[in-house]
Amino acid sequence: MYVYNPALQFLHYVTTTVPYIETFPPPEAFVKAVVPKLRAIGLTKTEALMLINLGAGLPKNRPSQPPAEGVGEEGAEGAQETQESDDRQLLAVVIEELTDRFPDEDGEDTVGRILEIMQTEFDQAQASTNGNGTNGLDAA
């Protein structure tokens, strides 16, 4: 008789479908550090949690493709700029009335600070687990 065990099913999913998640730090400390900082900037708690859930400003784990001929660090740098551009557009969608709440240059500075906070706190959480986070899971 098969007994459904959600914890084991989730662990199986993480290890087989999205194995890179195992290297992420547990989310509790990250969320507790990020939300108050984003709230201090003027975001609502809902907006802060949506940005965390969408991974705005965080490294993206995409399947690696072999670099094209003649594409070296410039290609990696271009990909990083594209990601930041995508994250900036995402913030404009998630944060209600972004241009009204943070007009002109203040808005660009705020968007930059939001992305910086997300990246800095992720790096600190990653460093606290020495890159060996288990995403809150204990090996069964």
Question: How would you summarize the topology of this molecule?
Answer:
Layout: H1 6-16, H2 27-41, H3 45-54, H4 73-94, H5 98-101, H6 104-128
Helix pairs in contact: 2-3, 2-6
Question: What does this protein structure show overall?
Answer:
Residues 56-88, 121-140 are annotated as: Disordered. Residues 121-132 have a biased composition (Polar residues). This is DNA-directed RNA polymerase III subunit RPC9. With 140 residues, the chain is an all-alpha fold. It has a domain at 19-60 and 74-128. Helix content is 62%, strand content 0%. It is built from 6 helices and no strands. The chain has helices spanning 6-16, 27-41, 45-54, 73-94, 98-101, 104-128. Helix 2 (27-41) crosses helix 3 and helix 2 runs antiparallel to helix 6.
Helix and strand pattern: HHHHHH
Uncertain runs are: 135-140
Q: List how many beta strands DSSP finds.
A: 0
- What is the count of helical runs? 6
Q: Beta-strand level of the residues, as a percent range?
A: under 5%
* Class from helix and strand fractions: mainly alpha
Largest sheet: none
Could you estimate the helical fraction of the residues in percent? 55-70%
Q: What general outline do the C-alpha atoms trace? A: elongated
Chain-averaged pLDDT: 76
Distance between the termini: 21 Å
Radius of gyration over C-alpha positions, nearest whole angstrom: 18 Å
Biased composition (Polar residues): 121-132
Organism: Exophiala dermatitidis (strain ATCC 34100 / CBS 525.76 / NIH/UT8656)
Region (Disordered): 56-88, 121-140
Protein name: DNA-directed RNA polymerase III subunit RPC9
